[in-house]
Amino acid sequence: MTVTCDLCGLQAEEADALSWTTSTEHQRFRRYCDACSRRHLRAMEGKLDSEHW
Ligand SMILES: [Zn+2]
């Protein structure tokens, strides 16, 4: 089965996508590839930081 990154549209075999990040946002299942996970994580951390202010 092939999975698709919800951010950049990258496709990979499910076995290769085990390290991808999955999350549920607004009741929608999302999947992010390694590169996007890192970008997404930084964005989330950035958002968290600003919420701590
Ligand atoms: Zn991606």
Describe, in plain words, how this protein is organized in 3D.
- By secondary structure, this protein is α+β, with helices and mostly antiparallel strands.
- It has one domain (2-52).
- It is 36% helix and 30% strand.
- It is built from 1 helix and 4 strands.
- It has one helix at residues 34-52; strands spanning 2-4, 11-13, 21-25, 28-32.
- The chain has a two-stranded antiparallel ribbon with strand order 1-2. A two-stranded antiparallel ribbon has the order 3-4.
- A hairpin with a 6-residue loop joins strand 1 (2-4) and strand 2 (11-13).
- The longest helix has 19 residues, at 34-52.
- The protein is globular and about 40 Å long.
- Zinc ion is lined by residues 5, 7-8, 10, 32-33, 35-36.
The whole-angstrom Rg is 12 Å
The main sheet comes to: 2 strands, antiparallel
Number of strands: 4
Low-confidence stretches: none
Distance between the first and last residues' Cα: 43 Å
SSE run: EEEEH
How many separate domains?
A: 1
Look at the structure and give the mean pLDDT.
86
Question: Pairing-aware structural class of the strands and helices?
Answer: alpha+beta
Q: How much strand content do the residues show?
A: 25-35%
**C-alpha geometry:** globular
